[in-house]
Automatic annotation (TrEMBL):
Residue stretches making up the HTH tetR-type domain: 5-65
Identification of the protein by name: TetR/AcrR family transcriptional regulator
InterPro entries assigned to the protein according to its UniProt record, in alphabetical order: Homeodomain-like_sf (IPR009057), HTH_TetR (IPR001647), Tet_transcr_reg_TetR-rel_C_sf (IPR036271), YxaF_TetR_C (IPR054156)
SUPFAM superfamilies from the UniProt entry: Homeodomain-like, Tetracyclin repressor-like, C-terminal domain
DNA-binding region, residue range(s): 28-47
GO MF annotations, alphabetized: DNA binding
Keywords: DNA-binding, Transcription, Transcription regulation
């Protein structure tokens, strides 16, 4: 009996894990096809090349993050501290799924060898994350301070996620959580 074909979403998630594990340069179309249980020839039906597939994966990831991680509730109903705690919990789950790390951060390390279109998608994802932090911080801080803390928080998270992947230690992410909670509790 033939194996059940993956849905488009399952295929994009499977490919995302391959890119997350091996990076862009280290992931081949053959590896992606095998992970999706397809022949390499039939895999090209879904994506003409690795770059086009990565762009689809990043677009899918961006949509997911915007819906699940970067969207905040009405501040009249849910306070910024609770919203940040929810965001942080979801971030830990997302960055721990099967393979520790941040797909977007891992791909961004290869900036010199990927297209401007992919780099722009990466910038857009980071910008949306930064904006979510800004929305939280501006509830308690002035505009300039909120913008600065939003920028540095994305950078801090990316560094902490990298250290989490390297050392299998949540310490770094816990420290960011504590720092942001102290800031929001002022």
């Amino acid at each position: 009996m033939r194996p059940q074909k993956l849905s488009s979403e399952q295929m994009l998630n499977t490919c995302a894990l391959q890119f997350k594990a091996h990076g862009y340069a280290g992931t081949s179309m053959e590896m992606l096809a095998k992970a999706c249980e397809l022949s390499k020839a039939s895999f090209y039906y879904y994506a003409p090349n690795k770059e086009a597939l990565l762009l689809k994966v990043l677009e899918h990831t961006h949509q997911y993050l915007n819906k699940q991680l970067f969207t905040l509730d009405d501040f009249n109903k849910v306070d910024p501290i609770t919203q940040f705690e929810n965001m942080h919990r979801k971030a830990i789950q997302f960055f721990s799924y099967e393979i520790k790390g941040c797909l977007v951060g891992i791909i961004s390390l290869e900036a010199s060898s990927i297209s401007e279109q992919i780099l722009q998608k990466i910038r857009d994802i980071f910008q949306d994350w930064q904006n979510a932090f800004y929305q939280l911080f501006k509830q308690k801080l002035n505009e300039n301070t909120a913008q600065n803390l939003a920028k540095i928080s994305v950078a801090d998270y990316e560094g902490a996620i990298l250290m989490y992947r390297l050392n299998n230690d949540l310490f770094y992410l816990d420290q960011i959580k504590s720092r942001i909670l102290r800031t929001l509790d002022q």
